[in-house]
Specification:
The protein is 29% helix and 25% strand. With 767 residues, the protein is an alpha/beta fold. It starts with 6 loop residues before the first strand and ends with a strand. About 2% of the residues have low confidence.
Length: 767
């Protein structure tokens, strides 16, 4: 199997999300994104202009000015750990970003990890969490074998808080262990020393492969202030450990340069001498291409209420090149989407939580909420994770998860065992993994989907992310359960006690909601960075490029021999008699539809030009590894064969190859079931797609989606269905006996009423 069968994914935004809902989502998130930009700017300012001027007065650049000159012109900097120590004070002082900048930066086209002491914050001192932040950046570089560049300007520990930085497993000394591990793994380390470099700061650059010192730099175990006799001898720290000593006498540094500008120029030259990126080789002739659907739209696709659902396929369509994706085992474990897409021309694996409702495989005709891990989804994740690790495909995990399924049935099906298999896979994988927390990251599901405890290279949060064992409301109910009835309402009549319970539950919920704030998570290093959804594509580009840059340290298999092809082949159903059916892949091209082969094989019995085709109708035959498949049109696809590109009998075809072109037809081409529905008499009604509780409005304080007399169009929401605290929009859908444009006559069920699948919700008439 030489070809990866990438297929079109996603739709234009207006085809699945109405303008009003999109603008509402975008407006709400814009406020949070503006806050994100404001808080980033505050961190970047360090201790402010006064301290920037002090640095400039010494003839030096600030840390961020050095990084700006170091990185390639016009390239983007990807900072990690921006909000470490956010909201914390040490006495009267704050330590923005823990006094150190850590960031992915491109230098001569190569991704590097830059670690730079912020010399506007207490002369680059190490605060509580500074060592851990430096070590986290070193670990990221080690995992990807990226060169590390240290821009050292550090006066050592911030001594009033030394008890929080000096001892402990990940205290300041652990930085030097990571220096050694990087060296042992052959990862290039380059250091520029620009000023103070005292005690631990003095050790930090020594193991580097190249050490540059400016004329203002010194490296000392103890500065002049601590050396007896230094004052009487009129010695300075520069005299004790400056470039004259360490470049020309001790050999602890390699090169002496006059100033910051020359040091940065020479460091860039060192990086240019390193091997170039392997990413172009691993593109296998493909080109870096943007998604077909604009990633900027991601800022309007997520409902800010975490109980409301969205289509995760539309998110993936805005992350992968050309919006093309190979989904594996699509009919199993429907709560999970796994598959392969290209990012900047490089193959990446994706695991994502589907939202909304899915069919319950254990109970025929029943549905259950997604966003939860069930047996098949867990098994699917584990198998995909192991296969990607075997094939050397980096994995991106997109989390929006409430946890594992619970209850008698879950235990009977052995979810603990399946979950352990998944955890084992993710714990032992050698392939780079990256985790994106889109909204909910709850309970053991957060662990199973490669949360930070399972050591992804990078974990990102959005301004919508909520990390917790359980939601605030749920925890409040658990805490006051003995005072509640079966509907979780307060079962106390006495007014004073009832008020106390209400206040207690509200306080508990508020405290948990505060704990779930993404900035609190980032402050205590429970996530690496907070980014806007519209920035996720750019981060995925970084992940792909950085994962394939270094060569020879991990297995990367040619796509022809991926294990994933074997899994996909074995997952194909077989019958003893008769033929199976495969659906054509359909790509829209203006009004025309392009039918693409769903798999590689031999084509036969294709329809001729001018033939009319309806949904479900066979339109060709495909032979795959000796198995014969009828090729049928998927639901919603109909047209006249305008052109066929394959005319030979048993002609070979690759997965995703364009074969047939259909032009649209009029209303006359309907399936038999549609014709029967058209013939039905009676009122024109829209029926409920599933059982649940139907609401007329997005939330209690909002107006109704629709009112009698308003005009309805295809895709316009008419209400919400709630199932197990999960909300899904009910759109107006034309077809059957419903016109494309209609006018609402009346609501047929009350706001908040329980409905069964098929219950008439609204009555309409043609507009």
């Amino acid at each position: 199997m030489a070809k990866v069968p990438l297929a079109p994914l996603g739709q234009a935004r207006a085809d699945f999300l109405d303008d009003a809902s999109y603008q509402k989502n975008r407006t709400a998130l814009t406020e949070r994104i503006e806050e994100l930009h404001r808080r980033r700017a505050e961190v970047a300012a360090g201790w402010g202009d006064k301290y920037v001027e002090r640095v400039h007065a010494k003839g030096k650049w600030t840390a961020r000015e050095r990084i700006e000159q170091l990185k390639d012109e016009g390239s983007r900097l990807f900072e990690v750990g921006t909000f470490v120590n956010d909201g914390l004070s040490f006495g009267k002082l704050k330590s923005p970003a823990a006094g150190v900048v850590t960031a992915y930066a491109q230098v001569h086209g190569r991704w590097t990890m830059v670690i730079a002491n912020d010399n506007t914050v207490a002369s680059g001192s190490w605060w509580p969490k500074t060592p851990e932040k430096i070590e986290r950046a070193q670990e990221m570089a080690l995992r990807l074998r990226l060169p590390v560049i240290y821009l050292v300007d550090c006066s050592g520990l911030f001594l009033p808080e030394q008890s929080h930085t000096f001892p402990g497993l990940t205290g300041a000394g652990h930085i030097f262990k990571k220096n050694s591990e990087l060296s042992a793994a052959g990862v290039p380390q380059i250091a520029g020393v620009f000023g103070d470099c005292i005690a631990g700061g003095g050790y930090m650059p020594i193991i580097s492969d190249r050490v540059y010192m400016t004329e203002q730099a010194y490296m000392v175990i103890a500065g002049a202030a601590l050396i007896q006799g230094a004052k009487s001898q009129k010695l300075s720290s520069l005299d004790i450990g400056g470039p004259e000593v360490h470049v020309h006498q001790s050999g602890c540094a390699d090169v002496r340069v006059p100033n910051d500008a020359v040091a940065i120029e020479r460091i860039r030259a060192e990086v240019e001498r390193l091997p170039s990126s392997g990413a172009p080789f691993h593109r296998h002739g493909s080109q870096a291409c943007p998604p077909l659907h604009d990633p900027e739209q991601l800022d309007g696709l997520f409902p800010t209420d975490h109980r409301h659902v969205y289509d995760v396929e539309q998110v993936l369509a805005r992350l992968v090149d050309h919006s093309l994706f190979w989904e594996l085992w699509a009919d199993r474990g429907r709560e999970i989407v796994v598959g392969i897409g290209r990012v900047n021309g490089l193959y990446m694996g994706f695991c994502a939580n589907r939202q909304g409702l899915i069919e319950d495989a254990q109970r025929e005709g029943q549905q259950k909420p997604a966003g939860i891990l069930y047996r098949e989804g867990i098994a699917k994740l584990a198998a995909f994770s192991r296969a990607c690790n075997d094939d050397g495909i980096p994995i991106v995990w997109l989390q929006d998860i409430s946890g594992f399924d619970i209850g008698v049935e879950a235990e009977r099906l052995g979810l603990l065992g399946y979950g352990s298999s998944l955890i084992y896979s993710n714990s032992t994988n050698q392939v780079p993994m990256f985790t994106l927390l889109l909204r909910k990251a709850s309970g053991a599901g957060y662990y199973a989907m490669a949360g930070l405890p399972y050591e992804p290279v990078v974990q990102l949060s959005t301004p919508l992310t909520r990390q917790s064992v359980m939601e605030g409301r749920t925890l409040a109910i658990a805490a006051f359960n003995t005072k509640l009835d079966d509907q979780f309402e307060i079962a106390v009549e006495e007014p004073e006690e009832r008020a106390q319970i209400e206040a207690g539950m509200a306080a508990t919920e508020a405290r948990i909601e505060g704990d779930m704030d993404p900035y609190k998570s980032a402050s205590q290093m429970d996530t690496d960075e907070i980014v806007a959804p519209s920035e996720l594509r750019a981060w995925c580009e970084l992940f792909a490029e950085a994962s394939y840059q270094a060569s020879g340290y991990r297995r990367i298999k040619n796509p022809r021999i991926w294990s994933l092809h074997d899994f996909a082949a074995l997952a194909m159903p077989r019958r003893a008699q008769g033929r199976l059916a495969l659906e054509w892949q359909v790509r829209q091209d203006g009004e025309r539809m392009i039918l693409e082969a769903p798999d590689a094989g031999l084509l036969a019995e294709l329809p001729k030009s001018g033939w009319a085709l309806a949904p479900g109708q066979p339109a060709g035959v495909l032979l795959v590894l000796g198995q014969v498949y009828d090729l049928v049109l998927p639901a919603g696809t109909a047209g006249i064969v305008d052109q066929t590109t394959w005319t030979q009998v048993h002609a070979p075809v690759g997965a995703g190859d364009a074969v047939l072109i259909l032009r649209p037809v009029g209303e006359g081409l309907l399936t038999q079931s549609a014709q029967e529905s058209e013939a039905e008499s009676g009122a024109l009604v829209l029926r409920s797609p599933q059982s649940g509780r139907f609401y007329h409005r997005p939330s209690p304080q909002d107006p109704a989606f629709t009112e009698p007399g308003c005009e309805l169009q295809e895709g316009q929401p008419v209400g919400l269905i709630e199932v197990m605290k999960t909300f899904a929009q009910v759109p107006y859908q034309a077809g059957s006996n419903l016109p494309a444009r209609a006018k609402l006559v009346r609501h047929l069920v009350a706001d908040g009423a329980d409905v069964e699948e098929g219950t008439p919700l609204i009555e309409v008439e043609p507009a």
